[in-house]
Amino acid sequence: MVSKVPDKISDLRAIQVLDSRGNPTVEVDLHTRLGSVGRAIVPSGASTGIHEALELRDGDKDTYGGMGVLKAVSNVNRKIKPRILGLDCTKQEKIDRIMIDLDGTANKSKLGANAILGVSMALARSAALSQNIPLYRYLEDRKRYRLPVPMMNVINGGKHAGNKLSVQEFLIEPVGAKSFSDALRYGTEVYHALKTVLKEKYGPNATNVGDEGGYAPPIESTEQALDAITSAVSNAGYGDSEIMLGLDAASSSFYDGKGRYSIDGRSLSPEELLEYYEDIASRYPILTLEDPFDEDAFSDFARITSKIGKKVKIIGDDLYVTNKERIERGTKEKATNAVLIKLNQIGSVSETLSSISISKKAGFEVIVSHRSGETEDTFISHLATAVESSFIKSGAPSRGERTAKYNELLRIEDELGKDALFSNL
Ligand code: PGA
Ligand code: ZN
Fold it and tell me: 7 C-alpha to center of ligand 1: Å?
Protein backbone atom coordinates (compact mmCIF):
# COMPACT_ATOMS: atom_id res chain seq x y z
CA MET A 1 0.00 0.00 0.00
CA VAL A 2 1.27 3.52 -0.79
CA SER A 3 1.19 5.95 2.10
CA LYS A 4 2.41 9.43 1.48
CA VAL A 5 1.17 12.74 2.87
CA PRO A 6 -0.68 12.30 6.18
CA ASP A 7 -4.26 13.60 6.18
CA LYS A 8 -6.51 13.41 9.19
CA ILE A 9 -10.05 12.07 9.36
CA SER A 10 -12.28 15.09 9.99
CA ASP A 11 -15.74 13.55 9.76
CA LEU A 12 -17.53 10.26 9.30
CA ARG A 13 -21.16 9.79 8.40
CA ALA A 14 -23.16 6.63 7.68
CA ILE A 15 -26.68 6.45 6.29
CA GLN A 16 -29.03 3.64 5.27
CA VAL A 17 -29.40 3.21 1.49
CA LEU A 18 -30.71 0.39 -0.74
CA ASP A 19 -28.93 -2.47 -2.49
CA SER A 20 -29.86 -4.06 -5.82
CA ARG A 21 -32.49 -6.32 -4.23
CA GLY A 22 -34.15 -3.38 -2.54
CA ASN A 23 -32.74 -4.30 0.85
CA PRO A 24 -31.23 -1.67 3.14
CA THR A 25 -27.46 -1.45 3.37
CA VAL A 26 -24.81 0.81 4.89
CA GLU A 27 -23.27 3.76 3.05
CA VAL A 28 -20.35 5.62 4.62
CA ASP A 29 -18.80 9.00 3.75
CA LEU A 30 -15.41 9.66 5.27
CA HIS A 31 -14.08 13.23 5.15
CA THR A 32 -10.48 14.34 5.59
CA ARG A 33 -8.98 17.64 6.70
CA LEU A 34 -7.47 18.25 3.26
CA GLY A 35 -10.93 17.97 1.74
CA SER A 36 -11.26 14.41 0.39
CA VAL A 37 -14.54 12.56 0.75
CA GLY A 38 -14.38 8.80 0.29
CA ARG A 39 -17.71 7.01 -0.12
CA ALA A 40 -18.39 3.28 0.16
CA ILE A 41 -21.53 1.13 0.04
CA VAL A 42 -21.56 -2.38 1.50
CA PRO A 43 -22.84 -5.35 -0.58
CA SER A 44 -24.84 -8.33 0.71
CA GLY A 45 -25.02 -12.05 -0.15
CA ALA A 46 -27.98 -14.46 -0.42
CA SER A 47 -26.17 -17.80 -0.42
CA THR A 48 -24.01 -16.71 2.49
CA GLY A 49 -21.52 -19.06 4.11
CA ILE A 50 -22.17 -19.97 7.76
CA HIS A 51 -18.60 -18.93 8.62
CA GLU A 52 -18.94 -15.38 7.24
CA ALA A 53 -18.60 -12.29 9.39
CA LEU A 54 -21.98 -11.10 10.63
CA GLU A 55 -24.09 -8.64 8.70
CA LEU A 56 -25.98 -6.74 11.39
CA ARG A 57 -29.71 -6.40 10.61
CA ASP A 58 -32.23 -4.62 12.84
CA GLY A 59 -34.68 -7.53 12.96
CA ASP A 60 -37.60 -5.17 13.52
CA LYS A 61 -40.32 -6.75 11.35
CA ASP A 62 -42.25 -3.47 11.05
CA THR A 63 -39.59 -1.80 8.92
CA TYR A 64 -38.13 -3.37 5.81
CA GLY A 65 -39.27 -6.78 7.10
CA GLY A 66 -36.48 -6.80 9.68
CA MET A 67 -33.79 -6.10 7.06
CA GLY A 68 -33.00 -2.54 8.21
CA VAL A 69 -29.40 -1.66 9.09
CA LEU A 70 -30.00 1.34 11.36
CA LYS A 71 -28.12 -0.34 14.23
CA ALA A 72 -25.04 -0.76 12.03
CA VAL A 73 -25.43 2.84 10.83
CA SER A 74 -25.63 4.05 14.40
CA ASN A 75 -22.57 1.96 15.33
CA VAL A 76 -20.60 3.90 12.70
CA ASN A 77 -21.93 7.31 13.72
CA ARG A 78 -21.82 6.85 17.49
CA LYS A 79 -19.28 4.16 18.32
CA ILE A 80 -16.66 4.05 15.55
CA LYS A 81 -16.55 7.76 14.72
CA PRO A 82 -15.28 9.02 18.11
CA ARG A 83 -12.49 6.38 18.05
CA ILE A 84 -11.07 7.32 14.67
CA LEU A 85 -11.66 11.08 14.26
CA GLY A 86 -8.34 12.90 13.94
CA LEU A 87 -6.37 9.78 12.87
CA ASP A 88 -4.32 9.73 9.68
CA CYS A 89 -6.51 8.25 6.94
CA THR A 90 -3.53 6.50 5.31
CA LYS A 91 -3.19 4.19 8.33
CA GLN A 92 -5.55 1.52 7.01
CA GLU A 93 -4.29 -1.40 9.07
CA LYS A 94 -4.17 0.54 12.28
CA ILE A 95 -7.70 1.90 11.87
CA ASP A 96 -9.11 -1.48 10.80
CA ARG A 97 -7.49 -2.96 13.90
CA ILE A 98 -9.07 -0.29 16.15
CA MET A 99 -12.51 -1.22 14.79
CA ILE A 100 -11.87 -4.97 15.10
CA ASP A 101 -10.75 -4.51 18.71
CA LEU A 102 -13.67 -2.22 19.50
CA ASP A 103 -16.00 -4.93 18.20
CA GLY A 104 -14.14 -7.62 20.14
CA THR A 105 -15.93 -10.65 18.66
CA ALA A 106 -14.58 -13.26 16.23
CA ASN A 107 -17.29 -12.59 13.61
CA LYS A 108 -17.78 -8.81 14.06
CA SER A 109 -21.23 -9.42 15.49
CA LYS A 110 -21.19 -6.54 17.96
CA LEU A 111 -20.67 -3.60 15.59
CA GLY A 112 -21.60 -5.57 12.46
CA ALA A 113 -19.25 -6.44 9.59
CA ASN A 114 -21.38 -4.09 7.48
CA ALA A 115 -20.54 -1.16 9.79
CA ILE A 116 -16.79 -1.95 9.96
CA LEU A 117 -16.41 -2.69 6.25
CA GLY A 118 -18.25 0.48 5.21
CA VAL A 119 -15.77 2.57 7.18
CA SER A 120 -12.80 0.49 6.06
CA MET A 121 -13.64 0.88 2.35
CA ALA A 122 -14.46 4.60 2.67
CA LEU A 123 -11.15 5.05 4.46
CA ALA A 124 -9.13 3.53 1.59
CA ARG A 125 -11.09 5.62 -0.91
CA SER A 126 -10.55 8.89 0.91
CA ALA A 127 -6.84 8.10 1.39
CA ALA A 128 -6.44 7.44 -2.35
CA LEU A 129 -8.25 10.71 -3.12
CA SER A 130 -6.14 12.53 -0.59
CA GLN A 131 -2.93 11.22 -2.22
CA ASN A 132 -4.39 12.09 -5.62
CA ILE A 133 -3.90 8.59 -7.01
CA PRO A 134 -6.40 5.98 -8.24
CA LEU A 135 -7.67 3.55 -5.62
CA TYR A 136 -6.01 0.55 -7.30
CA ARG A 137 -2.62 2.27 -7.11
CA TYR A 138 -3.22 3.23 -3.49
CA LEU A 139 -4.04 -0.38 -2.62
CA GLU A 140 -0.92 -1.69 -4.38
CA ASP A 141 1.76 0.34 -6.12
CA ARG A 142 2.94 -1.58 -9.22
CA LYS A 143 4.86 -0.62 -12.33
CA ARG A 144 2.23 -2.29 -14.50
CA TYR A 145 -1.19 -3.70 -13.75
CA ARG A 146 -2.80 -6.85 -15.11
CA LEU A 147 -6.56 -6.64 -15.55
CA PRO A 148 -8.77 -9.60 -14.59
CA VAL A 149 -10.77 -11.86 -16.90
CA PRO A 150 -14.47 -11.15 -16.35
CA MET A 151 -16.38 -14.22 -15.15
CA MET A 152 -19.87 -13.45 -16.34
CA ASN A 153 -22.78 -15.25 -14.75
CA VAL A 154 -25.18 -15.63 -17.69
CA ILE A 155 -27.62 -18.19 -16.29
CA ASN A 156 -28.82 -17.81 -12.70
CA GLY A 157 -30.18 -20.66 -10.58
CA GLY A 158 -30.07 -21.75 -6.94
CA LYS A 159 -30.91 -18.99 -4.47
CA HIS A 160 -30.53 -16.28 -7.12
CA ALA A 161 -33.51 -17.23 -9.28
CA GLY A 162 -37.02 -18.64 -9.09
CA ASN A 163 -36.31 -21.60 -11.41
CA LYS A 164 -35.46 -25.22 -10.55
CA LEU A 165 -31.75 -25.18 -11.40
CA SER A 166 -29.72 -26.48 -8.45
CA VAL A 167 -26.44 -25.01 -9.64
CA GLN A 168 -26.42 -21.32 -8.73
CA GLU A 169 -24.24 -19.84 -11.49
CA PHE A 170 -23.28 -20.64 -15.07
CA LEU A 171 -20.37 -18.43 -16.07
CA ILE A 172 -18.64 -17.58 -19.32
CA GLU A 173 -14.91 -16.83 -19.18
CA PRO A 174 -13.39 -15.16 -22.27
CA VAL A 175 -9.83 -16.35 -21.60
CA GLY A 176 -8.81 -16.08 -25.27
CA ALA A 177 -9.36 -12.33 -25.47
CA LYS A 178 -6.36 -10.04 -25.76
CA SER A 179 -7.59 -7.27 -23.48
CA PHE A 180 -10.19 -6.62 -20.81
CA SER A 181 -12.38 -4.63 -23.21
CA ASP A 182 -12.27 -7.43 -25.79
CA ALA A 183 -13.11 -9.99 -23.12
CA LEU A 184 -16.09 -7.90 -22.05
CA ARG A 185 -17.21 -7.63 -25.68
CA TYR A 186 -16.87 -11.40 -26.27
CA GLY A 187 -18.87 -12.13 -23.14
CA THR A 188 -21.53 -9.57 -23.94
CA GLU A 189 -21.95 -10.88 -27.47
CA VAL A 190 -22.44 -14.38 -26.08
CA TYR A 191 -24.92 -13.00 -23.52
CA HIS A 192 -27.01 -11.53 -26.37
CA ALA A 193 -26.72 -14.73 -28.43
CA LEU A 194 -27.87 -16.70 -25.39
CA LYS A 195 -31.01 -14.58 -25.18
CA THR A 196 -31.96 -15.73 -28.68
CA VAL A 197 -31.16 -19.39 -27.93
CA LEU A 198 -33.24 -19.38 -24.74
CA LYS A 199 -36.15 -17.55 -26.34
CA GLU A 200 -36.30 -19.98 -29.26
CA LYS A 201 -36.08 -23.05 -27.05
CA TYR A 202 -38.01 -22.10 -23.94
CA GLY A 203 -40.19 -19.09 -24.87
CA PRO A 204 -40.03 -15.37 -24.03
CA ASN A 205 -40.22 -15.83 -20.23
CA ALA A 206 -36.90 -17.67 -20.33
CA THR A 207 -35.03 -14.40 -20.76
CA ASN A 208 -36.14 -12.78 -17.51
CA VAL A 209 -33.09 -12.09 -15.40
CA GLY A 210 -32.08 -13.17 -11.89
CA ASP A 211 -30.25 -11.35 -9.09
CA GLU A 212 -26.92 -11.20 -10.92
CA GLY A 213 -28.31 -10.21 -14.33
CA GLY A 214 -28.07 -13.69 -15.88
CA TYR A 215 -31.15 -15.22 -17.46
CA ALA A 216 -33.33 -17.33 -15.20
CA PRO A 217 -34.93 -19.77 -17.66
CA PRO A 218 -37.50 -22.35 -16.51
CA ILE A 219 -35.12 -25.24 -17.11
CA GLU A 220 -34.29 -27.98 -14.68
CA SER A 221 -30.91 -29.45 -15.44
CA THR A 222 -27.29 -28.38 -15.43
CA GLU A 223 -26.76 -29.96 -18.87
CA GLN A 224 -29.66 -28.03 -20.44
CA ALA A 225 -28.12 -24.78 -19.20
CA LEU A 226 -24.64 -25.75 -20.43
CA ASP A 227 -26.05 -26.81 -23.82
CA ALA A 228 -27.79 -23.45 -24.24
CA ILE A 229 -24.55 -21.62 -23.37
CA THR A 230 -22.33 -23.69 -25.69
CA SER A 231 -24.82 -23.04 -28.54
CA ALA A 232 -24.69 -19.32 -27.76
CA VAL A 233 -20.87 -19.34 -27.71
CA SER A 234 -20.73 -20.90 -31.17
CA ASN A 235 -23.61 -18.76 -32.53
CA ALA A 236 -21.66 -15.68 -31.46
CA GLY A 237 -18.71 -16.98 -33.49
CA TYR A 238 -16.42 -18.17 -30.69
CA GLY A 239 -14.73 -21.48 -29.87
CA ASP A 240 -13.58 -23.30 -26.72
CA SER A 241 -10.15 -21.73 -26.78
CA GLU A 242 -11.67 -18.25 -26.62
CA ILE A 243 -14.48 -18.76 -24.16
CA MET A 244 -14.43 -21.32 -21.40
CA LEU A 245 -17.14 -22.00 -18.86
CA GLY A 246 -17.49 -22.00 -15.10
CA LEU A 247 -19.99 -23.32 -12.58
CA ASP A 248 -20.67 -22.08 -9.08
CA ALA A 249 -22.57 -24.99 -7.56
CA ALA A 250 -22.94 -23.16 -4.22
CA SER A 251 -23.65 -26.70 -3.12
CA SER A 252 -24.30 -25.97 0.55
CA SER A 253 -27.69 -24.77 -0.68
CA PHE A 254 -28.57 -28.29 -1.91
CA TYR A 255 -26.77 -30.30 0.77
CA ASP A 256 -29.00 -31.95 3.37
CA GLY A 257 -26.39 -31.86 6.16
CA LYS A 258 -26.36 -35.69 6.33
CA GLY A 259 -24.21 -36.70 3.39
CA ARG A 260 -26.63 -36.28 0.45
CA TYR A 261 -26.77 -33.64 -2.26
CA SER A 262 -30.11 -33.06 -4.07
CA ILE A 263 -29.08 -31.89 -7.49
CA ASP A 264 -31.45 -31.57 -10.45
CA GLY A 265 -33.97 -33.96 -8.90
CA ARG A 266 -31.42 -36.64 -7.93
CA SER A 267 -29.96 -37.45 -4.53
CA LEU A 268 -26.20 -38.06 -4.70
CA SER A 269 -23.50 -39.09 -2.24
CA PRO A 270 -20.27 -37.02 -2.28
CA GLU A 271 -18.60 -39.79 -4.35
CA GLU A 272 -21.44 -39.78 -6.89
CA LEU A 273 -21.41 -35.99 -7.04
CA LEU A 274 -17.66 -36.04 -7.73
CA GLU A 275 -18.20 -38.48 -10.60
CA TYR A 276 -20.95 -36.26 -11.93
CA TYR A 277 -18.65 -33.18 -11.93
CA GLU A 278 -15.90 -35.21 -13.60
CA ASP A 279 -18.32 -36.28 -16.30
CA ILE A 280 -19.54 -32.69 -16.88
CA ALA A 281 -15.94 -31.42 -17.01
CA SER A 282 -15.08 -34.04 -19.63
CA ARG A 283 -18.03 -33.10 -21.84
CA TYR A 284 -17.97 -29.27 -21.61
CA PRO A 285 -15.10 -26.75 -21.67
CA ILE A 286 -15.21 -26.18 -17.91
CA LEU A 287 -12.35 -24.07 -16.54
CA THR A 288 -13.65 -23.29 -13.04
CA LEU A 289 -15.80 -25.08 -10.49
CA GLU A 290 -16.76 -23.19 -7.34
CA ASP A 291 -18.05 -24.73 -4.11
CA PRO A 292 -18.61 -28.22 -5.53
CA PHE A 293 -19.16 -29.55 -2.00
CA ASP A 294 -20.57 -28.32 1.30
CA GLU A 295 -18.84 -25.44 3.09
CA ASP A 296 -17.17 -27.71 5.67
CA ALA A 297 -16.29 -30.64 3.39
CA PHE A 298 -12.54 -29.92 3.16
CA SER A 299 -11.70 -33.55 2.39
CA ASP A 300 -14.20 -33.81 -0.49
CA PHE A 301 -12.77 -30.59 -1.92
CA ALA A 302 -9.26 -32.09 -1.63
CA ARG A 303 -10.44 -35.23 -3.43
CA ILE A 304 -11.84 -33.37 -6.41
CA THR A 305 -8.83 -31.04 -6.56
CA SER A 306 -6.46 -34.00 -6.70
CA LYS A 307 -8.60 -35.67 -9.39
CA ILE A 308 -9.34 -32.82 -11.80
CA GLY A 309 -7.40 -29.86 -10.37
CA LYS A 310 -4.83 -29.89 -13.18
CA LYS A 311 -7.54 -29.10 -15.68
CA VAL A 312 -10.15 -27.30 -13.61
CA LYS A 313 -9.70 -24.51 -11.10
CA ILE A 314 -11.50 -25.59 -7.95
CA ILE A 315 -12.62 -22.44 -6.15
CA GLY A 316 -13.46 -22.15 -2.46
CA ASP A 317 -16.07 -19.49 -1.66
CA ASP A 318 -18.35 -20.57 1.21
CA LEU A 319 -15.53 -22.97 2.14
CA TYR A 320 -13.10 -20.13 2.93
CA VAL A 321 -15.29 -17.03 3.40
CA THR A 322 -12.16 -14.92 2.76
CA ASN A 323 -11.00 -16.00 6.21
CA LYS A 324 -7.24 -16.35 6.69
CA GLU A 325 -7.40 -19.33 9.04
CA ARG A 326 -9.75 -21.25 6.74
CA ILE A 327 -7.62 -20.44 3.68
CA GLU A 328 -4.52 -21.58 5.57
CA ARG A 329 -6.23 -24.87 6.36
CA GLY A 330 -7.17 -25.18 2.67
CA THR A 331 -3.59 -24.65 1.55
CA LYS A 332 -2.33 -27.30 3.99
CA GLU A 333 -4.96 -29.83 2.97
CA LYS A 334 -4.71 -28.93 -0.75
CA ALA A 335 -8.48 -28.50 -0.66
CA THR A 336 -8.62 -26.23 -3.72
CA ASN A 337 -6.33 -24.41 -6.12
CA ALA A 338 -8.29 -21.14 -6.15
CA VAL A 339 -10.04 -18.81 -3.73
CA LEU A 340 -12.97 -16.44 -4.05
CA ILE A 341 -12.47 -13.10 -2.31
CA LYS A 342 -15.39 -11.07 -0.97
CA LEU A 343 -14.71 -8.07 1.24
CA ASN A 344 -17.87 -8.43 3.27
CA GLN A 345 -17.27 -12.08 4.13
CA ILE A 346 -14.43 -10.99 6.39
CA GLY A 347 -15.38 -7.36 6.96
CA SER A 348 -12.31 -5.12 6.47
CA VAL A 349 -9.95 -4.06 3.70
CA SER A 350 -6.74 -5.01 5.49
CA GLU A 351 -7.94 -8.50 6.41
CA THR A 352 -9.03 -8.98 2.79
CA LEU A 353 -5.59 -7.94 1.53
CA SER A 354 -3.93 -10.29 3.97
CA SER A 355 -6.16 -13.21 2.87
CA ILE A 356 -5.24 -12.46 -0.74
CA SER A 357 -1.58 -12.36 0.09
CA ILE A 358 -1.52 -15.75 1.84
CA SER A 359 -3.57 -17.27 -1.00
CA LYS A 360 -1.10 -16.00 -3.57
CA LYS A 361 1.87 -17.25 -1.58
CA ALA A 362 0.31 -20.71 -1.56
CA GLY A 363 -0.09 -20.56 -5.33
CA PHE A 364 -3.88 -20.25 -5.29
CA GLU A 365 -5.58 -18.42 -8.12
CA VAL A 366 -7.38 -15.35 -6.71
CA ILE A 367 -10.84 -14.28 -7.87
CA VAL A 368 -12.26 -11.02 -6.55
CA SER A 369 -16.04 -11.18 -6.40
CA HIS A 370 -19.22 -9.15 -6.02
CA ARG A 371 -22.22 -10.33 -3.97
CA SER A 372 -25.67 -11.17 -5.29
CA GLY A 373 -26.95 -8.06 -3.48
CA GLU A 374 -24.81 -5.26 -4.93
CA THR A 375 -24.65 -1.50 -5.27
CA GLU A 376 -23.15 1.15 -7.54
CA ASP A 377 -19.90 0.94 -5.56
CA THR A 378 -16.90 -0.04 -7.74
CA PHE A 379 -14.34 -0.83 -5.04
CA ILE A 380 -13.88 -4.42 -6.26
CA SER A 381 -12.79 -3.25 -9.75
CA HIS A 382 -9.88 -1.45 -8.08
CA LEU A 383 -9.16 -4.31 -5.70
CA ALA A 384 -9.04 -6.84 -8.58
CA THR A 385 -6.64 -4.56 -10.49
CA ALA A 386 -4.47 -3.84 -7.46
CA VAL A 387 -3.91 -7.49 -6.54
CA GLU A 388 -3.87 -8.71 -10.16
CA SER A 389 -6.62 -11.22 -9.49
CA SER A 390 -6.99 -13.78 -12.27
CA PHE A 391 -10.71 -13.14 -12.64
CA ILE A 392 -13.36 -10.74 -11.46
CA LYS A 393 -16.85 -12.07 -10.83
CA SER A 394 -19.43 -9.35 -11.32
CA GLY A 395 -22.43 -11.06 -12.86
CA ALA A 396 -23.84 -10.71 -16.35
CA PRO A 397 -23.23 -7.63 -18.50
CA SER A 398 -26.66 -6.38 -17.44
CA ARG A 399 -28.14 -4.52 -14.44
CA GLY A 400 -26.39 -1.30 -13.42
CA GLU A 401 -24.85 -2.65 -10.24
CA ARG A 402 -23.07 -5.36 -12.31
CA THR A 403 -22.01 -3.18 -15.25
CA ALA A 404 -20.76 -0.51 -12.81
CA LYS A 405 -17.83 -2.82 -11.99
CA TYR A 406 -17.09 -3.75 -15.61
CA ASN A 407 -17.38 -0.12 -16.72
CA GLU A 408 -14.94 0.97 -14.02
CA LEU A 409 -12.48 -1.63 -15.34
CA LEU A 410 -12.90 -0.16 -18.83
CA ARG A 411 -11.99 3.24 -17.37
CA ILE A 412 -8.95 1.77 -15.61
CA GLU A 413 -7.89 0.06 -18.84
CA ASP A 414 -8.24 3.34 -20.71
CA GLU A 415 -6.27 5.21 -18.07
CA LEU A 416 -3.43 2.64 -18.10
CA GLY A 417 -3.34 2.76 -21.90
CA LYS A 418 -0.69 0.56 -23.49
CA ASP A 419 0.68 -0.34 -20.07
CA ALA A 420 -2.44 -2.37 -19.28
CA LEU A 421 -1.67 -6.10 -19.17
CA PHE A 422 -4.34 -8.76 -19.42
CA SER A 423 -4.81 -12.37 -18.33
CA ASN A 424 -1.94 -14.81 -18.11
CA LEU A 425 -4.22 -17.80 -17.65
P1 PGA B 1 -23.95 -14.62 -2.79
O2 PGA B 1 -23.58 -15.41 -4.12
O3 PGA B 1 -23.46 -13.23 -2.91
O4 PGA B 1 -25.46 -14.72 -2.76
O5 PGA B 1 -23.29 -15.37 -1.67
C6 PGA B 1 -22.39 -15.27 -4.78
C7 PGA B 1 -21.56 -16.53 -4.78
O8 PGA B 1 -21.97 -17.55 -4.16
O9 PGA B 1 -20.48 -16.54 -5.34
ZN1 ZN C 1 -20.05 -18.75 -4.73
Answer: 36
Look up the CATH number of the domain holding residue 414: 3.20.20.120
Nearest ligand 1 atom to alpha carbon 43: 3
Which of 42, 212, 321, 342 should be mutated for ligand 1, with most atoms under 8 A from CB?
342
Is-catalytic flag, 342?
yes
Domain extent at residue 211 = 145-422
- Are 174 and 253 part of one and the same domain? yes
The percent of residues above 70 in pLDDT, for the chain, comes to 99
What is the CB < 6 Å shell around ligand 1? Answer: 45-48, 248, 250, 317, 369, 371-372
168 CA closest ligand 1 atom index: 8
**Nearest atom within ligand 1 for CA of residue 373:** 3
Q: What's the sign of the alpha-carbon dihedral 129, 135, 139, 145?
A: negative
Statement to judge: residues 176 and 307 lie in one domain? yes
Residues 99 and 199 in one domain: no
Active-site residue (options: 27, 169, 173, 212): 212
Question: 301 C-alpha to center of ligand 2: Å?
Answer: 14
- Which residues are CB-neighbours of 149 under 8 A, at least 6 positions away? 173, 174, 175, 177, 180, 183, 390, 391, 392, 422, 423, 425
In this predicted structure, what is the pLDDT of residue 1? 54
Per-residue pLDDT tens for 103-162? Answer: 999 999 999 999 999 999 999 999 999 999 999 999 999 999 999 999 999 999 999 999
Q: Which of 91, 108, 342, 405 is catalytic?
A: 342
Q: What CATH number is given to the structural domain containing 26?
A: 3.30.390.10
**What's residue 2's pLDDT?**
55
Q: Does residue 123 sit in the same domain as residue 204?
A: no
In a domain, residue 286? The reply is yes
Q: pLDDT digit string (tens) for 26-47? A: 999 999 999 999 999 999 999 9
Tens-digit pLDDT profile for residues 273-300: 999 999 999 999 999 999 999 999 999 9
Atom of ligand 1 nearest to the CA of 372: 3
Residues 127 and 176 in one domain: no
Residue 186 Cα to ligand 2 midpoint, Å, equals 23
Report how far ligand 1's centroid is from the alpha carbon of 90 (Å). Answer: 31
